[in-house]
């Protein structure tokens, strides 16, 4: 990608597809050439997004702090705010973000730093910094917020208790007053011996998928903070490297993770049985078999977005996880393989379909895509789907449908595949009594009158 820099601030609108791309068009780029370069040659790190009241926002971290833009209209991008980091300068390499309710949580892995919180409820006018404290979190490599449970997970860095492997903080009832629930290295007896430092984590309904570097992948149940339990491990697999980050598919059936090691592919694994996590496939950019390196991965539906550093941003179609194909890509840099160049992160969840990405030298990138995968509106109306409420549950679960399907029967199995309960639906019955079940994770399989089946996880407290 060639861009002529002629001013201190680069704000470019692109209308043509770059040569090294497939089904992706770069619409907008922002970079600030006055920012300090880090000790490893980077300027920018993580990218995040947010949507509110019909407007869309892009967030990107730099060596100086956090930059916040209104990208609703790419012909008139507005700089909403800049929030200085507690630490600024060449020491800064990592900043990370997540949102909960109307707040943006921000951390830095280099210190002395802090946990910062922005109030997003005043957008588009302002984003005031309402919390900036190092009393709980001084530094953190990555954060992930389980929005259902209202818990923030902090990986790496340091807390007020010292070095941190993984810590969990409650954001309820007050998102501006995080409370420490557990420091795994201090409070979980098996943690230091079996898991160790967690580099990144994905959490859904208290079930954490811990990417633990050289030690591999560990799935842990945090539903009872007084009795944290391991559910599954994957410590030996083909092309094993540094298990860096991962993301769970919306079905809950498979998980993708990146080994941040030169020449290693992304792995997609079957997690329907956590006692026997199995490899489905490995996928790569296929640009350089000895040097290509994945960094961050994110699922949005059946599309898997992968930041491949020097190779750029790749998108894979996983609708058939046994036959994964490339849906699109965009090479974000022309720099050679030096570990500290290229696409760092991606955010694919804006309602408009715009894709946000960060390049460690090139800054913020905004793409439009032309992918073939998708569900037409009429198909979506007739899609066989249902919602389990409440989930987690303590007694009765209700099945809420889209109004199209007719329920026929159900079965509930444990994670070992053993059927615990089954039954038939009547025209008026949409509730299932699970009050006698042992607390844990189960799979609920619903069968429609025409024979279609769909399964989802049920968490029982």
Please outline what is shown here:
Strand 15 and strand 16 form a beta hairpin. The N and C termini lie far apart (52 Å). By secondary structure, the chain is mainly beta.
Can you describe this structure?
With 461 residues, this protein is mainly β. Helices cover 3% and strands 48% of the residues. It is built from three helices and 40 strands. Strands 1-3-33-32-31 form a five-stranded antiparallel β-sheet, with no helix packed on it. Strand 5 and strand 6 (65-70) form a beta hairpin. The longest helix has 5 residues, at 191-195. It is globular, with a radius of gyration of 22 Å. 42% of the residues are buried. The model is unreliable at 1-19 and 375-383 (pLDDT under 50).
Q: Mind sketching the topology for me?
A:
Blueprint: E1 9-13, E2 21-22, E3 24-32, E4 44-52, E5 55-62, E6 65-70, E7 78-84, E8 95-100, E9 103-108, E10 115-119, E11 129-133, E12 137-139, E13 142-146, E14 151-155, E15 158-159, E16 162-163, E17 166-170, E18 179-183, H1 184-187, H2 191-195, E19 200-204, E20 207-211, E21 217-221, E22 229-234, E23 243-248, E24 254-259, E25 266-270, E26 278-283, E27 297-300, E28 303-307, E29 313-317, E30 325-330, E31 343-347, E32 355-359, E33 363-369, H3 377-381, E34 386-389, E35 396-401, E36 407-414, E37 419-424, E38 431-433, E39 440-448, E40 453-460
Antiparallel strand pairs: 1-3, 2-30, 3-33, 4-5, 5-6, 6-7, 8-9, 9-10, 10-11, 12-15, 13-14, 14-17, 15-16, 17-18, 19-20, 20-21, 21-22, 23-24, 24-25, 25-26, 27-28, 28-29, 29-30, 31-32, 32-33, 34-35, 35-38, 36-37, 36-39, 39-40
């Amino acid at each position: 990608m060639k861009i002529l820099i002629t001013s201190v601030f680069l704000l470019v609108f692109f209308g043509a597809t770059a040569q090294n791309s497939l089904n992706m068009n770069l619409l907008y780029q922002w970079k600030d050439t006055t920012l300090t370069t880090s000790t490893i040659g980077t300027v920018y790190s993580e990218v995040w997004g947010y949507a509110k009241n019909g407007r869309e926002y892009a967030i990107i971290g730099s060596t100086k702090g956090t930059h916040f833009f209104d990208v609703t209209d790419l012909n008139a991008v507005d700089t909403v705010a800049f929030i200085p980091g507690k630490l600024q300068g060449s020491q800064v390499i990592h900043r990370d973000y997540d949102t909960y309710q109307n707040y943006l949580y921000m951390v830095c892995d280099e210190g002395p730093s802090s946990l910062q919180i922005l109030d997003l409820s005043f957008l588009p006018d302002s984003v005031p910094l309402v919390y900036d404290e190092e009393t709980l979190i001084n530094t953190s490599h990555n954060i992930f917020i389980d929005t259902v449970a209202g818990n923030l997970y902090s990986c790496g860095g340091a807390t007020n208790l010292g070095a941190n492997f993984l810590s969990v903080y409650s954001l309820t009832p007050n998102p501006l007053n995080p409370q420490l629930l557990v420091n795994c290295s201090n409070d979980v007896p098996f943690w230091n011996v079996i898991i160790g430092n967690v580099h990144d984590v994905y959490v859904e309904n208290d079930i954490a998928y811990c990417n633990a570097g050289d030690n591999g992948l560990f799935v842990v149940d945090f539903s009872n903070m007084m009795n944290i339990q391991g559910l599954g491990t994957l410590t030996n697999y083909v092309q094993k490297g540094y298990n860096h980050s991962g993301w769970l598919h919306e079905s809950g059936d498979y998980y993708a993770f990146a080994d941040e090691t030169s020449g290693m592919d992304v792995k997609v694994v079957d997690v329907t049985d956590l006692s026997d996590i199995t490899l489905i496939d490995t996928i790569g950019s296929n640009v350089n078999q000895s040097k290509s390196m994945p960094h961050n991965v994110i699922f949005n539906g059946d599309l898997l977005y992968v930041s491949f550093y020097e190779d750029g941003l790749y998108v894979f179609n996983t609708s058939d996880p046994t036959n994964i194909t490339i849906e699109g890509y965009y090479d974000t840099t022309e720099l050679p393989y030096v570990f500290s160049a290229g696409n760092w992160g991606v955010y694919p969840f804006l309602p408009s379909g715009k894709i946000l990405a960060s390049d460690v030298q090139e800054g913020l990138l905004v793409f439009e895509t032309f992918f073939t995968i998708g569900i037409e509106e009429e198909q979506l109306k007739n899609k066989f789907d249902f919602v389990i409420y409440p989930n987690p549950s303590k007694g009765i679960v209700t099945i809420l449908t889209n109004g199209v399907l007719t329920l026929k029967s159900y079965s509930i199995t444990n994670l070992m595949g053993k059927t615990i309960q089954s039954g038939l639906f009547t025209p008026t019955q949409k509730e299932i009594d699970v009050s006698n079940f042992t607390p844990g994770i189960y799979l609920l399989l619903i069968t429609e009158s025409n024979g279609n089946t769909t399964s989802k996880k049920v968490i029982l407290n």
